[in-house]
């Protein structure tokens, strides 16, 4: 748990296939999100959805445009 400003957030390392990724677990979040660049790098397939805005911890808004279902990962 390094570099995390909110006490309800944990940073963990996980593997999706052979790719190591950083994962944030936030007890106050209502959904799970994955960075679009990571989706493409790992080779996951996203399905287009009706876009919606997501408010992130630093106050920025990001647009969610795809859903990736059933991502299997191992968490360390």
TrEMBL record:
Superkingdom of the organism of origin: Eukaryota
InterPro entries the UniProt entry points to: Peptidase_aspartic_dom_sf
Name of this protein: Uncharacterized protein
Organism per entry: Dipteronia dyeriana
């Amino acid at each position: 748990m390094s570099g995390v400003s909110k006490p309800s957030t944990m940073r963990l390392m996980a593997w999706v296939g052979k790719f190591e990724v950083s994962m944030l677990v936030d007890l106050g979040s209502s959904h799970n999100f994955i960075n679009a660049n990571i989706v493409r790098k790992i080779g996951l397939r996203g399905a287009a959805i009706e876009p919606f805005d997501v408010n992130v911890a630093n106050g920025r808004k990001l647009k969610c445009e795809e859903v990736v279902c059933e991502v299997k990962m191992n968490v360390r």
